[in-house]
Amino acid sequence: MAGGMTYTAIESTQLSTSEIYGQALVELGREHNDVVALTADLAKSTKIGDFMKEFPDRFFNVGIAEQDMFGVAAGMARAGLVPFLSTFSQFASFRAADQLHTDLCYQNVNAKVIATHSGTSFGQAGSTHHAICDLAVTRSIPNLTVIVPADGYETYNAVKAAYATPGPFYIRINRGFDRVLYENSDYGFEIGKAVTVHEGTDITVIACGSCVFQAVQAADFLEKAEGLKVRVINMHTIKPLDKEAILKAVMDTRRIITVEDHSIIGGLGSAVAEVVVESGKGCAFKKLGANDKFAPIGLHEDIMADLGIDANGIIEAVREVMKKDFEEDDNWDDEM
Q1: What is the Cα–Cα distance from 41 to 46, expressed in whole angstroms?
Q2: Could you say which DSSP state residue 190 is in?
Q3: Residue 131 bridge partners (DSSP)
Q4: Which parts of the chain have pLDDT scores under 50?
Q5: Start-end of H helices in the chain
Q6: How far, CA to CA in Å, does 274 sit from each of 136, 248, 256, 265?
Q7: What is the CA radius of gyration of the chain?
Q8: What's the pLDDT score for residue 2?
């Protein structure tokens, strides 16, 4: 994105996904009069309050009524506006699941859901506020584009791309305190196209959201300490999925690990596995995430360590998968 957003090191504390979402929405509001914003009494927590301060006449607080917010947004979209509605991921995907499904996606309206506090990023709030099943819900709904930005810059790109692309969107971001992956927003973001953030030929780690930074840290360590070449793919778009990048990784490395701040059932790992199985190609495969259990209460970094989705957990998984052998020949015919 030429002329995209840049920051200095001093301003890096403002680079969290939630902070930049608020800023990107304000930019859109200045550029387009059809942009409106809705909250379910969470303006401050979701950073959509930045839009409220500058455009009070285009901001709507429906109160603690997420289902109503989705219905109102659908009506606004049918009237020609572009509503951005924001609430916690757990509420957007479960409490308002019927409205997301029927009001937004079934009607295929031009509404954008910014789902904050995703995964275990609001760890202190407890398991009721951990969104570890939302991708399993959202990626199964027709017409819905699902994006999981890896950092603030990617959030900026995703929000801008959502406005430019007709149809319903679900953009999944964290509570805040995110690590910075990219130097700026000019790295070539495109909906449905994964980004290789670390080159490698021995094994591939496919990650999304906060786990991408952890995967890069693991890859750097393994290359320096053990000489392993670990490819890291940022699969920022869960739907539509970049099947080409996945199959290339299978052909090039034959070892795949997926990492997500989500259940291993129904999310990124399941989506990647479906592509691999349908291709008829064999590979060593491992999914990292919440293994059919609720995450404990605690700080985000502690929960990630407990689930094995931090850099240390990824390092151990890479070592495990690297021990798996294949046939000596490279003939794929017997894999069909």
Answers
A1: 10
A2: B
A3: 119
A4: 1-13, 334, 336
A5: 17-31, 43-46, 49-54, 66-78, 89-90, 97-99, 134-138, 152-164, 211-226, 243-253, 268-279, 300-307, 311-322
A6: 13, 15, 13, 12
A7: 20
A8: 37
- What residue has token string 């906060």? 210
pTM (global) more than 0.85: yes
**The pLDDT of residue 21:** 80
**Tokens representing 146?**
């699902």
pLDDT at 107: 96
Residue 280: other Cβ atoms inside 10 A: 9
Is residue 134 classed exposed, middle or buried when 0-12, 13-18 and 19+ CB atoms within 10 A define those classes? buried
Can you tell me whether residue 123 is helix, strand or coil?
helix
Cβ neighbours around 79 below 10 Å, total = 10
Q: What pLDDT does residue 257 have?
A: 98
> What are the pLDDT digits (tens) for 67-99?
999 999 999 999 999 999 999 999 999 999 999
Contact (Cβ atoms closer than 8 angstroms) between residue 194 and residue 150: no
Structural tokens at position 103 = 């009001």
Give yes or no for a contact between 314 and 289, defined as CB atoms under 8 angstroms apart: no
pLDDT score, position 336: 43
Q: Helix or strand or coil: residue 170?
A: strand
Write down the pLDDT at residue 14.
Answer: 53
For residue 271, CA distances in Å to 143, 191, 239, 277 come to: 16, 16, 9, 10
Q: What is the pLDDT of residue 263?
A: 97
CA distance between the termini of the chain: 41
